């Protein structure tokens, strides 16, 4: 059945970021709509942000195109040029390799949500704009390091596991 | 600037279907949001349907994943299983190679719109469920034929050019 029953799709919480950086995921939940509907070539997620929550750490992708459309409330797109308020129906694009780090933050006092599309590629490298961290992804999973490839430090990620 | 100014993105009309089949495009207009924002790995279009209009002839893709989210009004998804009403926020997925032909039709008396995502692939084959037609796409463009590869007939496409 192509039409999705959104009431039956699990809401995921938490964060894949290491150590204390995982706190960035607080207040964010998401449904993997594309996965639920059998898509494999790109991911489509519906992401909800409680007041104060962020979509992610500010980042950009080297190999994967990204698209967002706000579907509820007000999201603030933060990129190298500052803050940009986005309301339902507003869209933004982040072409692969464009080194303009971005994330969406709910600076309002009401819930907000957006749809996000990202290409699935065999490998990927992402860079975080506000901290010395990068992520490399391949078939074995994700690896977070400093941008020179050296391990993240306790100062960056704390002693949390 | 990642945030798109939708008021500045051209609305396209018309149809790429041959001959009289192009009438299928009447009442439909679309904005190529992904192209406008520099995305190349998948297309993202916002499609408006006037009352009575259809997204396309009923079809399925062999190589490209497709995703839709209704953003305005009521769209009726028609597939092999019949009619499925979709309202704003409702989503549907059409994995590559799933031979369940589909299209969206505005059966209401008010405007409707949806967001659609489709992978960009070097080649593609599409099949039309209700008529004897297929389309093959490569770097040279599109070619419409009968499903056995023979030319479409005047009975199918008329004498219009």
Kindly list the characteristics that best describe this protein:
2 helices; homodimer; Jelly Rolls; 40% strand; 161 residues; mainly beta; Cupin domain-containing protein (chains A, B); RmlC-like_jellyroll (chains A, B); metal-binding (chains A, B)
Q: How would you briefly describe this protein structure?
A:
Chains A, B: This is Cupin domain-containing protein. Two copies of one chain form a homodimer. Chain A has 161 residues and is mainly beta.
Explain how this protein is built:
The structure is a homodimer of 161-residue chains. Chain A is mainly beta. The first copy, chain A, has a single domain, classed as Jelly Rolls. Helices cover 5% and strands 40% of the residues of chain A. The first copy, chain A, has helices spanning 33-36, 154-157, and strands at residues 28-32, 42-49, 59-61, 66-72, 75-79, 82-86, 91-94, 103-105, 112-119, 124-128, 133-138, 141-145. In chain A, strands 1-2-9-4-7 form a five-stranded antiparallel beta sheet. Chain A has a four-stranded antiparallel beta sheet with strand order 3-10-11-12, with no helix packed on it. Chains A, B: This is Cupin domain-containing protein.
Tally of separate helices of chain A: 2
Largest sheet data of chain A: 5 strands, antiparallel
- Count every beta strand of chain A, where a strand is a DSSP E run of 2 or more residues: 12
Shape of chain A from CA axes?
globular
Largest interface, C-beta closer than 8 angstroms, per-chain residues: A-B, 39 and 40 residues
What count of domains describes the coordinates of chain A? 1
N to C succession of SSEs of chain A: EHEEEEEEEEEEEH
Strand content of chain A: 35-45%
């Amino acid at each position: 059945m192509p039409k999705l029953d959104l009431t039956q799709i699990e809401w995921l919480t938490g964060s894949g970021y290491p150590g204390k950086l995982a706190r960035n995921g607080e207040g964010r939940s998401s449904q993997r709509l594309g996965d639920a509907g059998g898509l494999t070539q790109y991911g489509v997620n519906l992401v909800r942000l409680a007041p104060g929550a962020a979509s992610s750490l500010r980042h950009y992708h080297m190999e994967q195109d990204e698209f967002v459309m706000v579907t509820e409330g007000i999201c603030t797109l933060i990129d190298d040029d500052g803050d940009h308020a986005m309301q339902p129906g507003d869209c933004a694009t982040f072409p692969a390799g464009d080194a303009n780090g971005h994330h969406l933050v709910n600076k309002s006092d009401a819930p907000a949500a957006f749809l996000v599309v990202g290409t699935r590629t065999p490998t990927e490298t992402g860079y975080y704009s506000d901290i010395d961290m990068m992520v490399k992804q391949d078939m074995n999973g994700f690896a977070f390091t400093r941008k020179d490839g050296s391990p993240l430090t306790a100062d960056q990620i704390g002693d949390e596991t």
